Amino acid sequence: MRLTPAQKQTRALVQAAAAVCEDKKGLNTRILALDPADSGLSDFFLVTSATNERQAVAIADEIELRLKRDFGVYPNSVEGRRHGEWILLDYVDFVVHVFQSERRAFYDIERLRKSARPLTPEEFDAELKTELKDKTRAARTKSPIKARAASAKPATKPATKPKKPAKRVKTAKKPAQKAATRRKAAPAKKKAPRPTRKKTKRSR
Question: Is 86 helix (H, G, I), strand (E, B) or coil?
Fold first, then answer.
């Protein structure tokens, strides 16, 4: 069963309230997981017993304080605090019932909710841990499946285009180089022949 974020929040609140009941020595604490068809607006009933009025008020006050401090959540309504025989804290998604033992036996709220599934705080915690384990297991098994699916696909290399011959970059010639090339290109001038002197016979 996958839980929505709102359902997870509700379960965390119920868990915290049940921990308060245990800390304050509440008796026979039970969490009733209500049938959605029969529950109306609430998902859970948290039921606990106190031996006297003072203990009942102390449990109710501590639940209200801890949920306000740790989660920033306030009860929608609080009833029965003045007499302390049956204190009801309505958090909409779950309802806390703190009874004195005689009143709990008289009203027998668990019998009135026959379709509800009663859980001890330990069983409730175990369900939450199981849900968390299932979620992490599912998250871990997802990634290898994706990896195997990716590896099963044939790796196709992109078609390589034939490389074009690199263009020769024409470098601009410097003026000195240009002049040198011109001098080399110009035809060499022929030297004018020297006039030859005719040999004259010397008179003896």
Answer: strand
